[in-house]
Amino acid sequence: MSANIDPHSPLIPAQEMVLPTLQGDGKRRWLNPALATGKYWQRRRLLAYALIAFFVTLPHLRLGGKPVVLLDIVSREFTFLGHTFYPTDSGLLLLVLLTVFFSIMFITAVGGRVWCGWGCPQTVYLEFLFRPIDRLFAGTVGKGGKPRKSLDAALQLGRFAVYLVCSMFLAHTFLSYFIGTDRLAQWMRLYPWQHPTAFGIMAGATAGLMYNFMFFREQLCMVACPYGRLQSVMLDRRSLIVTYDIHRGEPRHKGKAIGESKVGDCIDCGHCTSVCPTGIDIRNGLQMECIHCTQCIDACDAVMGRIGKPQGLIRYSSQDALSGKQHSWIRARTLIYPAMALVTSALFLMLLTTKFAFDARILSAPGAPYAVTATRDLQNNFRVRLRNRSNQEETYSIRMLQPTGASVQWSDVAPTLQPNESKLVPIMIHAPLGITAANHGSVQATVEITDQSGHARQIQLRILGPG
Prior knowledge:
- The structure is a single chain.
- This protein has helices spanning 39-57, 90-111, 114-118, 121-138, 153-179, 181-189, 196-216, 219-224, 227-234, 246-249, 271-274, 295-306, 319-322, 332-353; strands spanning 62-63, 66-67, 69-72, 77-80, 83-85, 241-244, 314-317, 358-364, 371-372, 377-388, 394-395, 397-402, 407-410, 416-417, 422-432, 442-450, 456-464.
- By secondary structure, the protein is an alpha+beta fold.
- Among the domains are: 2-36 and 48-90 and 109-227, no CATH class; 358-464, Immunoglobulin-like, CATH 2.60.40.
- Helix 2 (90-111) runs antiparallel to helix 14 (332-353) and helix 5 packs across helix 7.
- The chain is elongated.
- The N and C termini lie far apart (84 Å).
């Protein structure tokens, strides 16, 4: 890195590489990895195509009349597998996040950054959509590695146009997870001046994806994404990682080692470095930038096959296994993490099955806490916050369970709510005048609200009156 700095420059040369995408003088080092089409790449390609189809299709799927996934932040409604969650369901949402968190920790403890290299949308789209576009316009399909700035103006313009179309498609797909496909279709049919805010959101999402995949690229994994840094506390010496067998490979040598007995299998060809999408040298050991894409494994296996050496110089292994220790999948973190994920998911399912078809919450009404009517009855006024969680229109009834002699009714007609509709409905409670005399001015009451489908909720409140 320091060799790239002008000796008369005021910059202090770095003692070691700061970032693979950073030159010694601080300028961007553009990575144009070659392509190793080995067995791991073939498997990743099939998985990537399946994941792209899944990412694009998922927001269009419906379950019980609702989207399978919809994260409507503006309306504060989150739909998952046909169930809609609201801010009042913070406990359920917390259990979902904890389950995801413990699952990620378990997967990382077992397989390292396998998610980054095999399943992350950033890697999937960059390596199997946008880099193939680069290779198509550079004329290096199936090989890669040609500098992108060698394209003439016409090819650069064509490449930009294809990137723009792909980014627009991905931006609309991304937004459909947050606004729904129906609303997105409405946005797309309108002219920009008819919905400037919505058009600005779509244009901003497209511009962000264009910048990411055309310029920022692999730096998202190395600079912006926190997962690479978190892996240092989630990995241990028995985690499965992509690693170089230093005992077998060292000392390195160039070409065939004829007549030399103390040389390693690594011929220092540089293929493992030239194919790395993050620009690191896997032979330097475990590094934060490694996303476990296995390109170095495919490249090294191909070289070993050509020189008649056994494959696996670079392979999936663990630090303990390379040190000669016996590998074991069973250890504290591989037992604790899945156990915690199982507990949180079981709690989530238990609470989900007991979740009511509607929400009902009692609120006090403005004005005097109670009144005495002309018929010498005690009257209390309250309001009920109703929310219909079901997928059909519902009409609600209300009745008093206790105390005996008290009654409750809607102040107006029985409320009817559309699916996911919320309404504030006033109610009136009538009770004998002396019911609160022996209880210091209040008495415990229970009302029951029922919908047409037979779901019922019992709500506690206090009837106020003279002490």
